[in-house]
Amino acid sequence: LEGQAALDSGALAIAEHEGKIIYTDTDKILLSGNGDTLSIPLIMYQRSNKNTCMHQKPQVQRGKCIKKGQILAYGAATVDGELALGKNVLVAYMPWEGYNFEDAVLISERLVYEDI
């Protein structure tokens, strides 16, 4: 279900046909296959309709062979092609060691050690 939700969100860049990656950077991915070269533009820090930031990160390297439908770039809230929203955690925002300008977000060590 999370994989389908990630695909439907439009946050992922998907290969339209199989081929070989000939160039990749943060702006675009060039895919060569069937005698032509396809340029796949990546979204970089654009505003969505909900006033959130949309950004895609390329996940393929130059020289790699790609199949049709394979994920080329991940977007916000996606990991390995699946929706990854995380968890709601209660944190404390308070002065660090007394009354000063050094504010901090304090969390429990258990969150770190148990990888929550």
UniProtKB/TrEMBL annotation:
Query: Does Lipid metabolism appear among the keywords?
Result: no
Species this chain originates from = Artemisia furcata
The UniProt family comment states:
Belongs to the RNA polymerase beta chain family.
One GO cellular component term: DNA-directed RNA polymerase complex
What residues does the DNA-directed RNA polymerase subunit 2 hybrid-binding domain cover? 15-115
Q: What domain of life is recorded for the organism?
A: Eukaryota
Q: What is this protein called?
A: DNA-directed RNA polymerase
Gene Ontology biological-process annotations:
DNA-templated transcription
One annotated GO molecular function is: ribonucleoside binding
Q: What is its EC number?
A: 2.7.7.6
Is Acyltransferase found in the keyword set?
A: no
| Pfam families hit by this protein | RNA_pol_Rpb2_6 (PF00562)
Q: Which InterPro entries match?
A: DNA-dir_RNA_pol_su2 (IPR015712), DNA-dir_RNAP_su2_dom (IPR007120), DNA-dir_RNAP_su2_hyb_sf (IPR037033)
* Keyword annotations from UniProtKB, A to Z: Chloroplast, DNA-directed RNA polymerase, Nucleotidyltransferase, Plastid, Transcription, Transferase
